[in-house]
Design a protein that fits this description.
- The chain has about 450 residues and is an alpha/beta fold.
- The chain contains 16 helices and 13 strands.
- The chain folds into 2 domains: about 160 residues, Enolase-like, domain 1, CATH 3.30.390.10; about 250 residues, Enolase-like C-terminal domain (TIM Barrel), CATH 3.20.20.
Length: about 450
């Protein structure tokens, strides 16, 4: 099948940009102190060859999150993912096919696993790149292609998801349950005007002045009460250990105590938490016991927990015993690190997960497809971060603003690497000048990805 609206890739180029962190971020037992951005430019042409447009995509490399390993070092995974991103661009430059961006990415992604295995051999690595890391490394290209397609047709990319533009319905990419349906059914034509912003409370982040061992002194907040007052926060994501029960309970109670005092000073009566164990919990009983303990110590803190992020190991097939049904009876439990394709979503549902964490870093294409499936299944939806600065945060927020049912958007680039936001602050003040705990996503309504 083909349409006159199809495009072909004329050229693609990849560049790497390094950003320092203003403060270290600890999660899953690892500490992150810098960010490598993969920036990709793509030029496309129309089927008749008369029109051309360029698109852009940017995403942190995210190797510590997407490829934690006991067999290869962080330096090795960073190098491999950077090389993989460059090879995807090389592959795109060799692609002569016409199609919709969904088709082109779907076609090229069939080569990802082979490329990953080749790289492991070339770099003499002890293991090949996992699927999640492949998606993250390719996500900048994916975004740039969708951006270019929208720009060529002078429309927002989220308005190119109907049968008018797409060659195939969703059954081509998911299953027969989606026969006759297109992505326009599961996306909004206009972005939501505003979305609550989820603020990250990292495991190393000081809660009070007494916790500050060394001031950063850059004019930005340094404690949780300062951040709450500065941004008018109403949503906070609490990073927990997952393998230290007493600490996890104490940390959550401490965050709530500090937040109650800070919110009282500003007259705020309603706010929310999510809790993230970074896959470190041994089993679902840890989560159930944790929630019971929080409720026994503070009913208000318990009530404020909006959802639980994936608490146990990301390899669902290897750990079928990690079923979430009991925890999901108490709070929504969202699949995150395990969510890399439609099959993984189906398996997560079987194992008791009731929500899905969507991320721009997994690719515009995969995120749209998984967002559609999760909506059809009535799952709780959230859009989460990879400490995305600047353009990558705007891209993530644009996804959240165009997907019905998304509870909020996480954005912690302003906390850890604000330097990446500076080129975009004046262009999108509603997205970066935050005073009421929300971001003004209505501004993300331009052509392409809306940025």
């Amino acid at each position: 099948m083909s349409k006159s609206t199809d495009i072909r890739i004329k050229s693609a180029a990849c560049a790497v940009e390094q950003l320092p962190f203003r403060a270290p971020l600890k999660f899953g037992g690892r500490v992150l102190e810098k960010s490598l951005l993969i920036n990709v430019d793509v030029e496309v042409e129309s089927r008749d060859g008369k029109r051309h447009a360029s698109g852009f995509g940017s995403m942190p490399l995210g190797n510590i999150w997407s490829w934690p390993s006991e067999k290869v070092t962080g330096e090795q995974t960073e190098t491999a993912m950077q090389r993989f991103a460059e090879e995807i661009v090389d592959l795109a430059n060799e692609c002569s096919e016409f199609g919709h961006p969904i088709d082109l990415v779907y076609h090229l992604s069939g080569e990802y696993d082979h490329l990953a295995k080749q790289l492991a051999t070339q770099l003499k690595m002890a293991e090949a790149m996992p699927e999640l890391a492949q998606l993250v490394a390719a996500s900048s290209f994916d975004a740039a292609l969708h951006d270019a397609y929208g720009r060529l047709h002078n429309v927002n990319s989220f308005d190119t998801l109907s049968s008018k533009f797409m060659n195939y319905d969703l059954s081509e990419y998911l299953d027969s349950e989606f026969k006759g349906e297109y992505l326009d059914k599961y996306t909004l034509r206009q972005p939501k005007e505003r979305l609550p912003l989820y603020h990250l409370v990292g495991a190393l982040d000081p809660l009070t002045d007494a916790d500050v061992t060394k001031k950063i002194g850059d004019g930005l907040p340094e404690t949780l009460p300062q951040w709450i007052a500065h941004n008018g926060l109403t949503h906070m994501k609490i990073k927990l250990a997952g393998d230290d029960f007493e600490w996890d309970v104490a940390r959550t109670v401490a965050v709530n105590t500090v937040a109650e005092e800070a919110q009282a000073r500003r007259g705020c009566t309603q706010w929310f938490y999510s809790v993230d164990f970074n896959e470190k919990c041994q089993n679902v009983n840890y989560v159930v016991d944790f929630l019971k303990q929080i409720k026994s110590k503070s009913v208000a803190a318990f009530d404020r927990i909006q959802y639980v992020e994936q608490p146990t190991h990301r390899d669902l097939k290897a750990h079928p015993e990690n079923k979430m049904h009991e925890a999901a009876k108490i709070k929504p439990v969202v699949i995150d690190e395990s969510l890399v394709n439609y099959d993984s979503l189906l398996l997560a549902r079987e194992q008791g997960y009731t929500g899905a964490a969507l991320k721009a870093c997994k690719g515009q294409t995969e995120t749209l497809l998984l967002g559609a499936a999760a909506q059809k299944f009535g799952m709780f939806l959230c859009v989460q971060d990879l400490t995305c600065p600047g353009y990558s945060f705007l891209h993530s927020a644009s996804i959240a603003a165009h997907l019905p049912g998304v509870a909020a958007v996480e954005g912690n680039g302003r906390q850890y690497c604000p330097a990446g936001n500076k080129p975009w602050n004046k262009r999108f003040p509603t997205m970066f000048d935050i005073t009421d705990g929300t971001v003004g996503t209505g501004a993300l309504n331009g052509i392409g990805l809306g940025i």
